[in-house]
Amino acid sequence: MSTRPPYDSESVQAPVLEPGHTYASVTDKISAIVLTRPTSLGWVVGFALTFTLVMVLTVSLAWLITKGVGIWGINIPIGWGFAIVNFVWWIGIGHAGTLISAILFLLNQKWRTSINRFAEAMTLFAVACAGIFPLIHTGRPWMAYYMFPYPSTMYLWPQFRSPLIWDVFAVSTYGTVSLLFWFVGLIPDLATLRDRALKKPMQIIYGMLAMGWRGSARHWHRYQSAYLLLAGLATPLVLSVHTVVSFDFAIAIVPGWHTTIFPPYFVAGAIYSGFAMVISIAIPLRKAYDLEDFITMHHLENMAKVMLATGLIVAYGYYFEYFMSVYSGNKFDLYLTKMRFHGPYSHFYYALILCNILTPQLLWFRKARTNIPLLFVMSLVVNLGMWLERFVIVVISLTRDFMPSAWGRYSATVWDYATFAGTIGLFVMLLFLFVRVMPAISIAEMRELVAETSEDHE
Amino acid sequence: MEHRSHIYGVVAEFPTPHELIYAVEKTREAGYRRIEAYTPFPVEGLSEALALKRNKVPLITLIGGLTGGLGGFFFQYWASVIAYPLNIGGRPLNSWPAFIPVTFELTVLGAALSAVFGMLALNGLPRPHHPLFNVQRFVRHATSDRFFLCIEARDPKFNVSESARFLKALHAAHVIEVEDD
Questions:
Q1: What is residue A109's predicted lDDT score, i.e. its pLDDT?
Q2: Which of residues 150-169 of A touch B (CB under 8 A)?
Q3: Superfamily assignment of A23-148+158-457 in CATH?
Q4: Nearest Cβ partner for B112 among A177, A188, A194
Q5: How many CB pairs under 8 A join A and B?
Q6: CA distances (Å), A137 to each of A85, A206, A417, in order?
Q7: Cβ-proximal residues to A45 (8 Å cutoff; 6+ apart), any chain
Q8: ipTM above 0.85?
């Protein structure tokens, strides 16, 4: 432990945990948010607003199931539309949570500690929102079980050569493993809440969830092995998920989709938007619950740097899409590139360049990275940009494929927007519930951090 | 001997992980073997002090991953080649590269499920009750800010008063008898 170099050798950076904290103080402060702090008016208002959006989602889904996908703007040739744009956007957002909890854990990055819990929760909720879209996009969601291999009386099996079936396996595995990872991380904290809860019902609920965890050294021994292995498993998993999502496009022959750069560029884009979303959540969260000691400037700055780095990879991906279409001389690809710059949806493409490539260049400057309101706005801009990216990929390619007779236009209907807004509401509402009933920061890992930082001073 | 059956052990409380590790080492040196430490976070060096062996979680995870991967691949093979062969322009039925994504996902799924459930099973969880939960100080501090060492009654060297005196001599902040029920 002591042989490790101090993690911020520049020493100008803010500390990862403000000094003066003890095991008891981190336990008290984090568990109090759940157990003793009165529910604030802001929480109630926020919850009510997002719950309203969830009602909008419910109505949209009910209407969709009643009438069919015709209520959306999709039609041949644009059969994908918002449903797939939103699916890819949501699943991408989830990736930052896994990256923070798994990859940064393997890389022994201490600053991950106070943000991994809610980032993992964000992953789960984003995957939940993402999962809605392919399901309802099938048109007959009650038949969705056809995609799973089950012994049917028709002796029918799924087509395992299809990326859409890969997607089913990738996304459901990702959801399951994210849930396991999150829950395993929660067990010691649930035990803390069980032992500190004042009311009997809370003790029973947290007690059941904690499963009798008592911090035994033998248990920790196996727990740490399991946690490390889960991190090791989640790392290739998270890379595979967006790779498989990109296969949905790249395996097809549609111009603008059929490129080998898609897997890495999709993964980078996913992490890019995910970190943007983590920043969008972290900034209000630390403000609302006075967690500035735990989620410090150090975290925000590091996340901003990851955002900048992945943003540059994404920019490289855009450039190479352009370069390959020009270099290949393929007339369909060339025409598609022309359509991106000058076609009917070119304003989306320019907005995308502005949001995803130009704006984040501000992050080169420390002044911008440490300006919290600016960083918050930029994280929203990047989220918007990443949504536009998926819109550009899905819609421009489908409206302009090979034959002019097969060209078309796409515009979303009010139900498209309502469903999308509804999932945003669902996502934020789940986050509101989460911070109210679960420790938003890993208490056990914060104690570990207290132990490590106090050792460093000795 | 009658008395012993009502006692689970003696537990000592320490304020820091260093004191706990020191106490664990001394307790083992004194010949106690059925001892267990309880900490609010994984303490580095504690497993070594307790001389814990390598655990079986990695092996279980490996077996789970192999089962998931091999099962996944051969299931796809069976479904695509034997159960439901589709002749698509004479392309090979065993198009194994196309089976890799699902094989990979199922490997990860099998390994992750067995890592988590293997860990829980080896730890004997869920176990809603434990004699240590009878100790007020343990409940209040073991998952928060204190470090505990328990000498269990099943240790052949165990004797309530003597073991308690031994732990006190190690500068334990509190030494408490644990009732069994």
A1: 83
A2: 155-161, 163, 165-166, 169
A3: Formate dehydrogenase/DMSO reductase domain (1.20.1630.10)
A4: A177
A5: 190
A6: 11, 37, 15
A7: none
A8: yes
